[in-house]
Write a structure and sequence with these properties.
alpha+beta, ten-stranded antiparallel beta sheet, 15 strands, 356 residues, globular, binds zinc ion, three-stranded mixed beta sheet, 6 helices
Length: 356
Amino acid sequence: MIMSSIKKTKSKIKTKSSLKPPKRKKENLSELRQDLISGDWVVIANSRGKRPDDFKTETKVSEKSSVESCLFCDPIASGQEKDVLIYNTADDDWSLRVFPNKYPAFTRPTGKIHHQTEGPYFWMDGLGYHEIVVTKDHFERIGTMENLKVAEIFDAFQTRYLDLMNKKSVRYIEIFHNQGKQAGASIFHPHSQLVAIPVISPYVKLELKGADRYYKTNKKCVFCDIIEWEMEEDERVIFENDKFIAICPFASRRAFEVWVLPKEHQPYFERMETEDKIQVGEALNEAVRKINTVLNDPDYNFYLHTSPCDGKDYPHYHWHIEILPKTSIWAGFELSTGIEISAIEPEKAAKSLREA
Ligand SMILES: [Zn+2]
Ligand SMILES: [Zn+2]
Ligand SMILES: [Zn+2]
């Protein structure tokens, strides 16, 4: 993430008559593209001449994972903490459960947060909540399950979010999902996580700032403008239903990056209605299914970005999901500059995902 000087954005979304952009495409030339929201730069390294097939994951040699030794197939028997939420099926089995992480990244608060200084340094207690959302089936993952089951996962996210957001000292709740070892999943059994923390993450802060800046100049939400432009141009859209759209973003940081956004302006994820959950379930399921088809089941991460729950209003932000397949690793250039290199144009990636 870089705090680059951000090019002043004049009103970009124009009426249809003025839509024709100047020819951007020059085969085999790299492009530096700027993320309209964060101001970050990415390199689209066309000169590497890669095709969608070049990003396919090699077929994995049987993942070592048995139901018998799984910690999440029977969380109670394996000594996980007590559920904070459970969904049952019609025949009295469970379908989804949420419980506190046994090894949390943040310590559950029992009192006030202490803010301390130590010479030139500052630190505070790492207090927060860290929960695991587990679906019943050991092998059934997003992308292979029924849409309604993914909707149930979103219902669980929302239910837990609404509870955690009211806890003292929680200012942001990150919801994410790691799929596969390379994406950081240490347990094979499909699961997502919620981490409620006392600070707003730098990435979200940057997006909030960018959205505010764009609004000041254009009197419109930057995400709404992006959605409008993408629907009009139809070059980077990979899926849409009535309420959600999935696109490969113009300034994709990584090959085959996908965003899923509500088409209507919605700053707060937690205010989703039942129909939204059904439709986002379908959109995420479809996006992941397409990624799996084109890239041969790659490891990936997805996460939600939504307005902080710190008691302030964020009318110009627009919640969304970002999916990042593991198609590259950060090396010296990325680590030193914060500029990621995507070795395929998002337009080409979108085309193959759309057709999958
Ligand atoms: Zn399992
Ligand atoms: Zn919006
Ligand atoms: Zn975001």
